[in-house]
Amino acid sequence: MDKKIIDLGEKSGKMLLFGGIYSNLQALSSLIQIAQEKGIPPENCICTGDIIGYCGQPQETLDTFKKWRVHSILGNVEIQLRDDEDDCGCDFTTGSRCDGFSEIWYAFAKANLHTNTRDFFKSLPDHIILEYAGKKIGVVHGSYDQVAQLVFKSTDWKEKQASLASLEADVIIAGHCGLPFIDQQKDHLWLNPGVIGMPANDGNSDTWAMILDDANGFEYEHIPVSYDYLTAIEEMKKHHLPQEYALTLETGIWDNMEILPPEEKLLKGLQVFL
Predict the structure, then answer these.
(1) What is the pTM assigned to this prediction?
(2) What angle do CA 21, 8, 70 make, to 5 degrees?
(3) Does residue 196 contact residue 49 with C-beta atoms inside 8 Å?
(4) By the 8 A CB rule, do 81 and 109 touch?
(5) Residue 1 binned pLDDT confidence (cut-offs 50, 70, 90)
(6) CA 91, 95, 100: angle at the middle one, nearest 5?
(7) For 232-245, what is each residue's pLDDT tens digit?
(8) Neighbours of 273 (CB within 10 A)
(9) Cβ pair 138, 167 in contact under 8 A
(10) Where are the beta strands (DSSP E) in the chain?
């Protein structure tokens, strides 16, 4: 299947980048407030996918997201829901804890989304490209070729270079892996804003997004997203979703580190950005 790519043309002013809302309505509401406070219009906001996920309000989250009218690409979860598949497509190891938990939250999300949701997901692109502060930016979920590829800071640069080359980009904005990071090689950048629906395994209930600013060239900064995680937890409990993930919302520590490379496992409980 050919990839659908939307070209936003040249952008200017502050931009808000984020991903992994994961059906966390409270985190999304806080992020919208941040955008409004910083004067960032919806057309300058881009989501890296996985609007739907672990938490307890999939339809309410999607309704709020659509009303916001920001840009988004497809995450693996949206692709699976669009295609009426029976699993989240997260590429977890069969029989792992993540695999077992995903059966629960994905079935809940699928059962609690309106039937016309698939039409909205069909409208989303695989990738976005744009020009900003003299650089060409490409937006991917996992990587250009594999929507569910887990790309971390420690991932070999050759794998990142493949996405940069495919989109002829200077900068890649990516999601999926759940950890915010910056990786630079010469004139090329790989930026992961992080996800707003789950903490970054850093021992903090805040989650992460990123702001681009062209006031003095090409500048970027990760920002924390504080939100009402206690209400998000209650919603997960109400719907009997995995309580291990609900606990993560409070503690900021992941239930397990099955998906993490050795380098990222060493970062457990450490503050992401000083």
Answers:
(1) 0.96
(2) 30
(3) no
(4) yes
(5) low
(6) 80
(7) 999 999 999 999 99
(8) 14
(9) yes
(10) 5-11, 15-18, 45-47, 71-72, 127-132, 135-139, 171-173, 181-185, 188-192, 207-213, 219-225
